[in-house]
Write a structure and sequence with these properties.
Blueprint (H helix, E strand, L loop, with lengths): L20 H8 L3 E5 L2 E4 L1 H21 L2 E2 L5 E3 H7 L1 H4 L5 E4 L5 E4 L4 H11 L8 E10 L14 E11 L2 H21 L4 E5 L10 E7 L5 E6 L5 E3 L22 E4 L6 H8 L7 E8 L2 E8 L6 H8 L4 E3 L2 H8 L15 E5 L8 E4 L5 E6 L9 E3 L18 E16 L1 H5 L3 E3 L5 E3 L1 E8 H11 L1 E2 L2 E2 L10 E5 L5 H16 L7 E3 L6 H11 L3 E5 L1 H5 L2 E6 L5 E5 L7
The chain binds adenosine-5'-triphosphate and magnesium ion.
Adenosine-5'-triphosphate binds next to β8, β21, β24 and α11.
Length: 566
């Protein structure tokens, strides 16, 4: 490709809207252009990267035995009603009507459609397992589109769905996908961690996320320094705390203290001159099984997903003011477990270890101090109901402590089970000719987000440093002065010769633009081409050219006929 013909509108200045390196550099390198909030054009250089990421994904998915298909973007409301998600997906779903007033959505994910395909086309257990995938554009009306193509409203995703007649078969395919994802991200040259995750809106049972490690990542990753277990903040399991000896004895009797207008943990602990770690935070929830008071230490936060799981509740939400007043007989801000009735009390594992605690007195403008678990109150249930923090004990090994790092979620694999097949009555006939719902798995990779994550991990002050496998071009040929006939002749010959090598066909960029060499090299570095071949007067004297590596900055003088690539 001749650079004089390439549409790559590079920018000299940093665009002000870009908060992270990948967004800034993709704009500056002329790879993407914004059309609307969270909606982007991929210009030729950007699309070459997207294409290469997709190609690696496609190769490895095919190798894994999965079959590629293509589903529509336009999905009718009916199948979303069948799965029950039309009502619950919320504002993230783009909904539209056709000229006959039929409702559709723009697919944010394709469980419904693929389940309808399986329902129509897979009849017998003999046809299972099957894994079907597509690389396709998805639509999600994200509340806050940002970071360029990392979180946008229209984006390219690889999504696959597997169908099974047994849990063992699902486990096997899940492992197959796990290994496939590792091969994909290894080939992409990325550093990543696999973390245990919450299943979110897609639902189902077990799931894991592939996280590319980057300081700018939106997700916190908790990993055990001892056993290596890693999990998202949502799902990091915390080991039980050993209850201390003097728990329940209470050193000093519990007493009521006036705390006028002091409601928050910060206000009360400052007023009482105690640390937030001595406070017992009490939150009232409503569930379909009745009201619940959830207790956590003052500096901790309730993890509603964990609480829901522990309670076995389907529906859990914070109680409103009226309910809180009814249960605690006090305005919001003064709830505490002592003397609380008609409500189930659930305490986090740490709460029984708090000595000399302080908490709301269930009376306006009063708190209790010197509160002791076992003596002054007891929980109906004790368990892990909060978000992990740095230094917490790992649940997996029970010994190591959690450290925290940040990452970008690029892939997500789920064991869905029968969530969709049951709702949509998608069944096959088993060995005994009995109808059974399909057992399903689903597996996604964000193609654009993966490309952006590669930049977050690989860039410097001069621009992008693409991993070889997904660089838009592998080599750039740059004559120092293109009004110098000899330099141009040599450059053209190198360009032509390299382009005939199968591994480099279509992979060589020839910078035939007029202008100063310094400016040209700056552009090539910004775009992140792994290798530059620079043809200048000094080298040419000895029949040599400079071969420079983008990543290391190393330069070698190489004889013209001996330019080689690994
Ligand atoms: P997030 O928590 O970041 O919103 P998600 O859990 O909603 O992601 P999934 O439904 O698991 O994402 O989608 C599979 C993959 O699609 C994600 O791992 C991610 O790489 C990509 N992806 C999801 N949302 C977006 C988006 N708004 N823009 C770009 N890529 C996305
Ligand atoms: Mg999301």
């Amino acid at each position: 490709m001749k650079m004089s013909c390439l549409l790559s509108p590079t920018l000299r200045e940093d665009p002000s809207e870009a908060e992270v390196a990948s967004h800034r550099l993709m704009l500056r390198a002329g790879m993407i252009r914004k059309l609307a909030a969270g909606v982007y054009n991929y210009l030729p250089l950007g699309y070459r990267v997207i294409y290469k990421v997709s190609r690696i994904i496609r190769q490895e998915m095919n190798r894994s035995g999965a079959q590629e298909l293509l589903m529509p973007t336009l999905l009718p409301r009916e199948i979303w009603e069948e799965s029950g998600r039309w009502g619950v997906y919320g504002k993230e779903l783009f909904r539209i009507k056709d000229r006959h007033d039929h409702e559709f959505c723009l697919g944010p994910t394709h469980e419904e459609d693929i389940t309808s395909i399986a329902r129509d086309s897979l009849r017998s257990y003999k046809q299972l397992p099957v894994n079907l995938y597509q690389i396709q554009t998805k639509f999600r009306d994200e509340i806050r589109p940002r970071f360029g193509i990392m979180r946008c409203r229209e984006f390219i995703m690889k999504d696959s769905y597997s169908f099974h007649s047994s849990e063992e078969s699902l486990d096997k395919e899940y492992k197959n996908m796990f290994d496939t994802y590792c091969r994909i991200f290894d080939r992409l040259g990325l550093k990543y961690k696999v973390v245990e995750a919450d299943s979110g809106a897609i639902g189902g049972g077990f799931s894991q996320e592939f996280m590319v490690l980057a300081d700018t990542g939106e997700e916190e990753i908790f990993y055990c320094e001892s056993c290596g277990y890693a999990a998202s903040r949502e799902s990091a399991g915390i080991g039980e705390y050993a209850v201390q000896k003097n728990v329940g004895q209470g050193l000093v009797p519990c007493r009521e203290v006036k705390t006028p207008d002091k409601k928050s943990i910060e206000e009360v602990s400052a007023f009482l001159k105690i640390k937030p770690t001595q406070m017992i935070k009490t939150l009232i929830y409503e569930t379909e099984k009745g009201a619940v008071a959830a207790l956590v230490r003052g500096d901790h936060d309730v993890n509603e997903a964990k609480l829901k799981k522990l309670l076995g509740a389907e529906d859990l939400r914070l109680a409103d003011e009226k309910v809180i007043e009814k249960i605690t007989k006090a305005p919001v801000g003064f709830a505490g477990p002592v003397g609380l009735k008609d409500v189930k009390i659930v305490a986090d594992n740490v709460v029984p270890t708090i000595e000399d605690g302080a908490t709301g007195a269930n009376r306006k403008d009063f708190h209790l101090t010197n509160v002791a678990y076992g003596r002054d109150f007891k929980a109906d249930q004790v368990g892990d109901i909060r978000y992990a923090v740095h230094g917490d004990v790992c649940k997996k090994c029970g010994k190591g402590k959690f450290a925290v790092t940040r990452g970008i979620e690029v892939g997500h694999i789920f064991k869905l089970g029968t969530k969709y097949s049951k709702k949509m009555k998608a069944t096959y006939l088993d060995e005994n000719n009995k109808e059974q719902p399909f057992i399903m798995g689903c597996y996604g990779i964000g193609v654009g987000r993966t490309a952006a994550a590669a930049i977050e991990q690989n860039h410097d002050k001069d621009g992008i440093i693409w991993p070889e496998a997904i660089a838009p071009f592998k080599v750039a040929v740059v004559p120092v002065n293109n009004s110098d006939e000899e330099q141009m002749k040599v450059a053209e010959k190198i360009y032509a010769d390299l382009s005939t090598k199968p591994e480099l066909t279509g992979e060589v960029l020839f910078d035939d633009r007029d202008g100063r060499v310094g400016v040209k090299l700056k552009d090539i570095d910004l775009i992140g081409i792994p290798t530059k071949i620079i043809i200048g007067p000094k080298g040419l004297k000895d029949g040599k050219v400079e071969v420079k590596d983008r990543k290391t900055g190393n330069m070698r003088l190489v004889e013209i006929g001996r330019i080689q690539f690994q």
